[in-house]
Amino acid sequence: MDTEALRSFVRAAELGRFQRTAEELGVTQQAVSKRIAGLERELGVRLFARTARGVELTLDGQAFLPHARSVVAAVERAVAAVRPGSRALRIDVLGLRSAQAVVLHEYWRSHPGTDLDVVTLRVTDPGVAVAAVAAGEVDASFRSVTDPGALPPDVRMIHAFDSPLELLVGPRHPLASARRLTPAQLRGHRIWVPGIAPGSEWAVFYDELATEFDLRVDAAGPHFGDEVLLDTLAESADVATFVGARDRYIWPTHYDLRRVPITDPVLAYPLSLLLPATNPHPGLRALLTHLDTLPEPPEPVWRPSWAPPVRPKESRHARRPTDAHPQ
Amino acid sequence: MDTEALRSFVRAAELGRFQRTAEELGVTQQAVSKRIAGLERELGVRLFARTARGVELTLDGQAFLPHARSVVAAVERAVAAVRPGSRALRIDVLGLRSAQAVVLHEYWRSHPGTDLDVVTLRVTDPGVAVAAVAAGEVDASFRSVTDPGALPPDVRMIHAFDSPLELLVGPRHPLASARRLTPAQLRGHRIWVPGIAPGSEWAVFYDELATEFDLRVDAAGPHFGDEVLLDTLAESADVATFVGARDRYIWPTHYDLRRVPITDPVLAYPLSLLLPATNPHPGLRALLTHLDTLPEPPEPVWRPSWAPPVRPKESRHARRPTDAHPQ
DNA sequence: GCGTACCCACAACGATTGGTTGTGGGTACG
DNA sequence: CGTACCCACAACCAATCGTTGTGGGTACGC
């Protein structure tokens, strides 16, 4: 069944004339006549009674009309669902329990009615995420490229928000009772961060962090999921891990894990947003405005060398992505 | 947009293989490939990622899928809405305030969920209604043919129920205070029944009734609607009219109109149902069963000569329309 | 490491469809 | 009774959709 024929049927039912319908749809009267005739042949019933003054619906036509409308409307929605610019804002996050997803959820709750698709591309190489953004497959991605030269001209990377690291430890760990810790106090302790894909921006981040503060950050071994990680931490007296302050972790009460903030300096993982340099999704503007409202960690803050600049709030507002039109 | 392509898309998304999809749909793999390619071209996005093991949905494909399903479902419903046998039971009544419509409403209330279309063909000649039934435009019509020879072989007429006449009079009418009346007592009074189309079965009915009981039944003058009729009755001291016992009439309280039953004999207008002799709508069976439960007027009953036979209840049940397969 | 099996895409070709223009029949209206 | 208007039919052309045949690419097994 051709949806163009359905559209013609609906309009013809409203206008009562094939001629007018044809003019509105930009075809000849004969084309409309054939479309309707085809529909009638396909359905096996007569939809219109032809009169000298035009056409009017038969009983079958009357019964068919609301359904035809609903098909046409469904087609409209289907097309809109994938039309770049009018479809739901589609954001790539690393995982649904990450700080990125938490922030997106906050954004969505504070903007009821917003169409938002939170997706996970499940790729380790940030270059693939860049390509997905460039191709318009996602409207933005919370990924970072550590080498500015690797960023093609049609993709921009901007600072989204800082994710301050916290130490997650079990009750038997020597640092378990600390209210806060400095990076220097972590020296010599084994920090286990499984699931860091080699070559990803996270690997680069922890490399630089370990070098800068002389830490033992251990990414070795396969990642069996957060459950295994939390289970191990609860048991161990010498293993700790880093988590983002807003990351969502849930464990049984008897695990008695503690999140210890790190200060002087705060260790900030700079969450960035990759987005198209031209014609970004209109919904992005509201999201960026929301990101501006997130609190910044108190100084002093350490960030890796490749962190995109944190623009002051007033200039952020002055330079919104929809205003950006390079070249 | 072609709905066959949408169907192919939905199935391919479920199966993950064009090959299997093509087999299920009875076309070649290349045809499915072209349908999807056409859809992708029309939408301007890629719906599937082609892999060596088949295909898998892209993000746009995932966003499109539920909408495609809803279009396909809407098309199914649209087709079903006009497919003879599966569409709603469609019954023609003379008017929405007639006893026929009242009975249909009762039926619908006692059979929740039944799909029922009560329509008014708005034709005076019962032959047109017969043609509509024969053509399947309506599944049944509460009309009667008074000449059995005029009934084509593919349309049957059966007795539906009797509608006993009542006299409707205003408070100043000499018969206003009667509790009941016999036809003999009506003699000499002017009975005004506007809106009876010449040639219709109602005209034949009132002709025969007037002759049989020597009554003055006056159908002259245009019919300006029930409001005018009721208004006239309320004022007049010498005009009365006939109404069916189950007809729905509403008038302001101060009109003070009275419905007076007529007995010895009861004057029964025999409401008939025209229905196809072959392949009647399956929903008709339940309707006929419901008609069987309606009470019959107490004897003695006068009916016109052309009234179809009133079959006893037990035989009515034995001979249902779905059992009838002439030739 | 290479053949095999499997999958999808491309090419070519015939049948069908959907569009056009031109024409005709039928009904209301003056 | 002529005119205006509307829809249907015929003929023709282009585009589409189906087919068969073929090719490229990837996973899997020997």
Count helical runs of chain A: 11
Radius of gyration of chain A: 29 Å
C-alpha end-to-end distance of chain A = 45 Å
- Looking at how many chains there are and whether they match, the oligomeric state comes to homodimer
Structural class of chain A: alpha/beta
Shape of chain A: elongated
Q: What is the H-and-E element order of chain A?
A: HHHEEHEHEHEEHEHEHEEEHEH
Main sheet: strands, sense, barrel of chain A: 7 strands, mixed
List the uncertain runs of chain A: 316-327
What proportion of the residues of chain A is helical, as a percent range?
25-40%
Greatest interface and its participating residue counts: A-B, 33 and 33 residues
Strand-residue proportion of chain A:
15-25%
Task: Calculate the mean pLDDT score of chain A and round it.
Answer: 87
Q: What is the number of E strands of chain A?
A: 12
